[in-house]
Every structure is written in structure tokens, then in C-alpha cells.
Amino acid sequence: MSDYFKRKSIPQLISESHDGEHSLHRTLSAFNLVTLGIGAIIGAGLFSITGGAAAHNAGPAVTISFIVAAIGCGFAGLCYAEFASMIPVAGSAYTYAYATMGEFIAWVIGWDLVLEYAVGGATVAISWSRYLVKLLEYYEIYLPAQLVMSPFDTVTCGDGSIVHGMINVPAVFIVVVVSMLLIKGTRESAFVNNIIVALKVTVVMVFIGLGWAYINTANYTPYIPINTGTFGEFGWSGIIRAAGIIFFAYIGFDAVSTAAQEAKNPGRDMPIGILVSLAICTVLYILFAHVMTGLANYKEFQGQDGIAPVAVAIRHTPYIWLQQAVIIAILAGYSSVIMVMLMGQSRVFFSMSKDGLLPKVFSEVHTTFKTPYKSNLLFMVFVSLFAAFVPARVVGEMTSIGTLFAFILVCAGVLYMRYKMPDAPRVFKTPFVPVVPILGILVCFGMMVFLPGDTWLRLIIWMAIGLAIYFLYSAKRSKLRNQK
Questions:
Q1: Residue 317 phi, psi dihedral angles, 5° rounding
Q2: Of all helices (H) and strands (E), which one includes residue 164?
Q3: What is the dihedral angle through the alpha carbons of 179, 185, 191, 197, rounded to the nearest 10 degrees?
Q4: Residue-range domains of the chain with CATH
Q5: Model's pTM, two decimal places?
């Protein structure tokens, strides 16, 4: 059994990252990594989740919920930052687990990350399609309903007839475009991501700046509505429940760590990318929620979904045109999220392939672009098929549970490394160890506990498939285990 828990040394991991056949271009600066993190974090969740959390759980105190959620993410972020400065190679949590808890746990977390990156990317692509349809409707351009839904989705037309979907063409389109950009190169992808981040951050700041003048302070009373008698419906329990919901608006900062092998100065810049992007998004989230609940009473957000909560707030200002700007920001936000997710997935499988746990095709690098282009193409096909034919609701929460599981293992890995390798070089150190990693584990596991039971069932089935692949294929071909 000990063979299954063999670990790679940090010098070995770093040495392998310089292997000419599998080397990636180091083109990303600290600024690129920060914008990469912001690009992954700020999606449509900010515009859609905030209103619902305020309406049903926290009221105006949703701003406190954002702070609580940020603290929970901060624990995991600090642990990611330490690992990224110690092990500046591609692979993120997979690579960290290989150096700490051994090959078997590394495989588990690598397979788990598919839920966050590939499946998550497909889910976001489906939502991107929906918002594109909404934007085009503003200009009286109507796409055929059959071509914007999966075969499992239906829509009721104005005349009462029911239309069944065939294929989600816009979702496939955005996945293909983003994949082609990723194949072209990390520098080009980072440039486009910077533009997208600038666009959506501008829209968020415009909403905050213009909306601030129209805040009605009466909407903040009571700031913490009295609990209804049910746990999670207002009061302090509602704030905590809202924090658990809002947590998923922060998912994505960990994707920065997958680009460690393409950072110019990873030891210094990776912690900056992870922590600064998380801090910037936290400030924007809190200000956004404060303005949103100040413009409209939190009760007005009940029964709203999609961008409707933001639209309700905007109606209390003379700037109705902001509704279209918000949709554009959502489309931009989703595009950069898809980009970072697909990049993260290809880099995780790139590392697993180099270790022999997956076929060699996933680690083959383009001679000109220096990107794992075959991996990008394979995931383009896989994610496109998923986005085209599977409804988003089936896997939405699987992304969240996969991410939380990864956070737990990274926090546990920092504890292990501090005990086993206290003198290993660390450009950045997680403060207050073991308190911070332990709190990270507890907070993330607590959020997992409150997820629906069917989400846990899907996770168990997914991991069972992964274990079958590991024992039937990967373990036999592991380069580390086959070393003489």
C-alpha cells in the first residue's frame, strides 16, 4: 500500500517543470496573475446571488455575509499562497498533494478538480448563452429556441406551445472561441482577460458610483432583520446561511495557482495574484451589496432571479441603460471565467499526464505556442458537448462541492508540510499555523455539509469512476511508482 502514497520531492517537481519537452512559457507578471484571479472570481454570481441572499436570508446585512465568506476563502487562499510559493509548477492542488500526501491523494484531488474546472466551465457556458439571448432581445434579435437549449430543456411560447431544445449553439460557440485563444498562447489569453476584467470591473464601479447618490438610508432599517423562527431566515443565522450561499461567488481564485509554471517570478508573484485578487473582489462585493440594498428594500428582491435583482435596484435610479451594461458585464465576466476554468483544467491534466497518470496526449506542448494544445482541443470537445446537450442544473452544485473538497485538502496539506518539512524554503508563509489551516478545513467542510444530499451522491459516483480509472490504468503507468 505504501506505493500508492509515494511522494515527489519539491526539488524533483521544480526540476521537472524545466524539462524542455514539457516546458511552458513564463510570460505572466504579478499584474497578469491578479487580473487572472479577478477574471475567475467576478462572474454573474455577484449580480444574481446578492439579491436572493438579501431577500431570503440576511437583508441589508448581506454585506456582513460577504465579509464572512471572504474570511472563509481567505483561510484557503493563504494556504494556496504558501504552496504556490513553495512549489511554483503547473497543477495547483494536484501538485501540492503529490508533494505532501502522496500519489493516491493527488489523483483524488486531480480528478476532483475536473468538477470545478471542466464541468464548471460547461455550466458557465450554458449561462453565458442565456444572457446572450437576453442581450439580443433588447435589440429585437430572436434566436430559435431549439438552438439555445439542451434537448432536456423546454420553453413555453406566448401562444402556449411548448418548444423542446435541440442543441445550445451559443454555449458551444463561446467554448470554441476561448479554447482557440488558449491554444494561441498564455500571453494572448492574459491580454484578452485583462480587457475583459477592465470592462466588468468598470461596470461594477459605475453601478456603485452612480447608485451611491440615490441610496435611501431607510432601506437599511433594520440592518439585521429579526429571525423568522427558522434557522437561516434572517437574524445572525441568516447572515451565516447567506455567507454559505455567497461563498460560491468567490470561487475561482484558486485557478491562479494552476498558472504557476507560466509566471515570471512565481515565488513572489503567485501569493500576490491569489491574495490581491481576493481582496479586490471582496471590497467590490461589499460596496456593490451596500449600494444594491440601499437603492431598494431587500423585500423587493423576493421572487427575482437572473439579473432581475440588479434591475430592481437600477429602477430606483434614472440610469435604466445600466441594465444592458450589466448584461454586457455578465457576458464579459462569464467569458473570462470560462477562459480561466479551461486553462486551469488543461494545466492540471498537463501535470497528471507528465506523471504518467493520464495518457501522454495531455502533456504534449505545441512547438510554436508552447501550450498544451492537444489537451485544450480535447477539453474543447468535451466541454462543448456537455454545454450543448446537458442542462446546467444537473451539475451546478457539483462545481461547488468539488471546489470545497479541494480547499480542504490544500489546507490539510499545509498542516502536513509544516510538520514534515518545517525547514523547506517558503517565500510566503501562511500566518497563525495551525489555526488558519484548521479553520479553513472546518469552514469549508461546514459548507459542504449544508449542500443537498443528491450533490453528495453525485460526488461519490464521480469519485468512484475516478478510482476505477486510477487502479485499472494510472497506478500501473505511474512514472514515480515504476522508478527503479
A1: -125, 165
A2: strand 162-164
A3: 40
A4: 2-477 (1.20.1740.10)
A5: 0.78
CB 42 within 8 A of CB 200: yes
Contact 102, 4 (CB under 8 A): yes
Residue 119 main-chain phi, psi, to 5 deg = -65, -40
- For residue 98, the model assigns a pLDDT of 86
pLDDT tens-place string over residues 277-288: 889 999 999 999
| Residue appearing with cell numbers 497506478 | 475
Q: Residue 45 — very low, low, confident or very high, per pLDDT cuts 50/70/90?
A: low
The 3-state DSSP class for residue 161 equals coil
* Helix (H) or strand (E) segment spanning residue 163: strand 162-164
Q: Which residues contact 323 (CB under 8 A, 6 or more apart)?
A: 307, 310, 311, 314
Residue 150, classed as helix, strand or coil, is coil
CA dist list (Å): 414 to 248, 393, 405, 419, 474: 23, 34, 15, 9, 26
Question: Under a CB-based contact definition with an 8 Å cutoff, are residues 331 and 132 in contact?
Answer: yes
Output DSSP code: residue 224. Answer: S
Contact between residue 98 and residue 8 where contact means Cβ atoms under 8 Å apart? yes
Rounded to whole angstroms, the Cα distance separating 132 from 141 reads 10
Distance CA 197, CA 252 (A): 14
Nearest-angstrom CA–CA distance, 426 and 443: 25
| Cα-to-chain-centroid distance, residue 55 | 24
- Residue 132 neighbours by CB distance under 10 Å: 20
Nearest to 262 by CA among 465, 26, 1: 26
59: cell is 437583508
Cell of 305: 432571479
Segment 61-94, tens digit of pLDDT: 999 999 988 888 889 888 988 888 887 776 677 8
How much is the mean pLDDT over the chain?
83
Q: What pLDDT sits at residue 114?
A: 79
